[in-house]
Amino acid sequence: MKKIIAAALLAGLAAQASAQSGTNSPYSQYGLGLLSSQATGFNRGMNGVAYGFHEHNQVNYMNPASYAAVDSLSFLFDAGISLQLTNFEENGRKVNAHNADIEYVVASFRAFKHVGVSFGILPYSNVGYNFSNTKNVNAFPSTSSPNATYSNIYSGSGGLHQVYLGAGWEPFKGFAFGANISYLWGTLNRSFKNTYSDSYVNTLSKNYTTQVKSYKLDLGLQYTYVLDRKNELTLGLAYSLGHKLDAEPECNVISTNSQTSVSDTTRYVVSKALELPHTFGVGLMWNYKNNLKVGVDYQLQKWSKVAYPQLNTVGGTTSYSLVNGLFNDRRKLTLGGDYCKGERYRGFFSRMHYRAGVGYASPYLKVNGKDGPRELSASFGVGIPIVNGYNNRSLLNISAEWVNQSVTGLVKENMFRINVGLTFNERWFAKFKVE
Fold it and tell me: Secretion signal: which residues (predicted)?
């Protein structure tokens, strides 16, 4: 009962944290925000490799077919947090930012023979930035000061989050499929303010707000082929349904008279806007004696087909409407592995998991009509067994991650993140014999 109460408290903390942002990236001002990792603690040590992995003692949200492999006597509860330091560099200037966030809370258990169930809460995207620039005004009314300046202030907050219920079924040995159905919700807030040092010029503000309430559907499949007594290969396939979110993005343009402080507001709304891209994933995992597991994943997100609302002024007429061609298809390739001498050994270090991974992702954002930053990443981590007189099946997953986002002429980001995930593995459903 104590662990159920603890689980409920952690889930409550995750729900509260979902209202906060886990990023300071200026790139989160575009699209749905900065896309969040969907990996749990053990995946993150391998840089997110997941499609071919099916663990009896870990929750793998990225391929719901893996739920069928959960141990029949276990109830898994996994919660993760992250601490990160990001260095931003532009034109020789460097700025550091710190963030801490509750990343996810997930659980899984065996419901029926060959059927596993999972549920939990995870982020989908994050919006969080605040920056400004100030420049001299070259051409100004004669009534203004010749040294007048203007400032542009950009800020944003919010993000999208998902609470899900999933199941995986293994109808016959080596083949499993599954699905996650999620409720997707959140608010995206972005603002732009243009101010002048000269009191004769009006202040202009643009506030963008979008509320999302929709669903998300993920499908997964895994097939394991036994090569011999020591080796087996698992093919994993995943698909996330792309669909319209039917949101109503709103833009309020506010012009304020600097002398009288009187404001004039014009409201623009786009109906049935925003959408999720079709996402395809394929992965292959090689398992050697259940000690060494190496996997490779490829993911394709069809962002190029997604339209996004944009405020445009042509010929003195301003409109807020959906625009195509603002994104590229995103392709991500990841390689990672896990080594453990054996969970049945008594030695502490023999039961440790050692993980590492690398990845590359092509840019999906377009900034001022040009391709945005590409992403390079690497990680390593450990799974530390928790051994005591009551429980020797739980794991503490700790990983360090480096992510670099850069493109010529734009802000360069170097992010260092520490991920900590605690997987409680409780022995449930066991029949005890009393003599």
Answer: 1-19
